[in-house]
Design a protein that fits this description.
Helix content is 26%, strand content 27%. The chain is an alpha/beta fold. Bound molecules: 1-O-phosphono-alpha-D-glucopyranose (G1P).
C-alpha cells in the first residue's frame, strides 16, 4: 500500500499566515501537522508516500527532503481535489491500494488509516472511505454517503456504500454521514479520474469519480472511525486541533 497526501490547496481560509507558511506545516506541539499525517500513513503500513503540493509550498519539499519514502509532485493548476489526486497517478500500479489522507485533516484519537486497512482486509480488499456524522444543516460542506442497507451506525461500524454525493443540499442529502479526510481506494480510481468532468464549484471532484466506481459495482465500504477529524485549514479548526491533540495524546 502506498499513500497520497494532497497538500496543494492555497489556504485562503487561513490568510494571512498561509502567505508565508503552508497550513499543513503549522505546528502541533513541536511538529508540523503534516508530519503527524505522514506518521499515520507509515504506521498504517504505507511503504511510499506521495505529497501533492503547489508552487509556493516548497517548504514542504524542503522539510521532508531527507525522507527516502516521500516523493513530491506538483499540481500546477487549482482544479479541485480529484485533479490534485490525479497528479500522483504515475506512482501507483494496477491492483494496488491508494491510501489518501487529506493534508489539512488531522485525525486525533485513533489511527483512522490503520483501522480502515483492517476494514478493507476483513471485507475482501474492498475500498473504504472514512466518515463521521455531521449535523444535517452542515451536509452541504461535505461528500455525503448513502448506505446500501440502512442500520443505526455508530463509531467503529462499517457499512456497504450504495452511493455518494458531493456537497448536496440539506433536502437532497442521502444521510448525515460525511466523508472525513481519509480514503483507501483501489488504484482504478486513477482511470476514473482521467476523464472526470468538473462538478460542484467547477472543480474535478474525487467524490464524483468514486460515485462512478460505485455505480460500476466496485465494492466500497464506509467506516465511521473512532477519533475526531480537525480541519486545520481555518483558525478555529487549528485551535481545536491543538487543544484536542494535547488532551488526547498528552503532548
Ligand atoms: C473535501 C471533499 C469532501 C469531504 C471534505 C472533508 O471537501 O471533497 O467530500 O467531505 O473534503 O474531508 P473540501 O473540504 O475540500 O471542500
Amino acid at each position: 500500500m502506498k499513500a497520497l497526501i494532497p497538500a496543494a490547496g492555497l489556504g485562503t481560509r487561513f490568510l494571512p499566515v498561509t502567505s508565508v507558511i503552508p497550513k499543513e506545516m503549522l505546528p502541533i506541539g513541536s511538529r508540523p501537522a503534516l508530519e503527524l499525517i505522514v506518521e499515520e500513513a507509515r504506521s498504517a503500513g504505507a511503504t511510499e508516500i506521495v505529497i501533492v503540493i503547489s508552487e509556493g509550498k516548497e517548504l514542504i519539499r524542503r522539510y521532508f527532503s531527507g525522507e527516502s519514502d516521500i516523493k513530491i509532485v506538483y499540481q500546477h493548476e487549482q482544479k479541485g481535489l480529484g485533479h490534485a489526486v490525479y497528479q500522483a497517478s504515475e506512482f501507483f500500479v494496477d491492483g494496488e491500494k491508494v491510501l489518501i489522507l487529506l493534508g489539512d485533516a488531522l485525525v486525533v484519537g485513533c489511527n483512522a488509516s490503520k483501522a480502515m486497512a483492517e476494514v478493507s482486509a476483513a471485507n475482501g480488499g474492498a475500498s473504504v472511505i472514512g466518515c463521521e456524522r455531521v449535523p444535517r444543516e452542515r451536509v452541504s460542506r461535505y461528500g455525503i454517503m448513502k448506505m446500501a442497507h440502512e442500520f443505526d451506525v455508530a463509531e467503529g461500524d462499517a457499512f456497504e456504500l450504495a452511493d455518494i454525493v458531493e456537497k448536496p443540499s440539506e433536502e437532497d442529502a442521502p444521510s448525515d454521514l460525511a466523508v472525513a479526510g481519509r480514503y483507501l481506494l483501489d488504484s482504478k480510481i486513477f482511470d476514473f479520474l482521467s476523464d472526470q468532468i468538473a462538478g460542484v464549484g467547477g472543480e474535478i471532484q474525487l467524490t464524483d469519480a468514486i460515485r462512478r466506481m460505485v455505480a460500476c459495482k466496485y465494492p466500497f465500504f464506509g467506516y465511521i472511525y473512532r477519533g475526531h477529524r480537525q480541519d486545520i485549514g481555518n483558525p478555529d479548526g487549528y485551535f481545536n486541533a491543538l487543544v484536542s491533540y494535547r488532551a488526547k495524546e498528552g503532548r
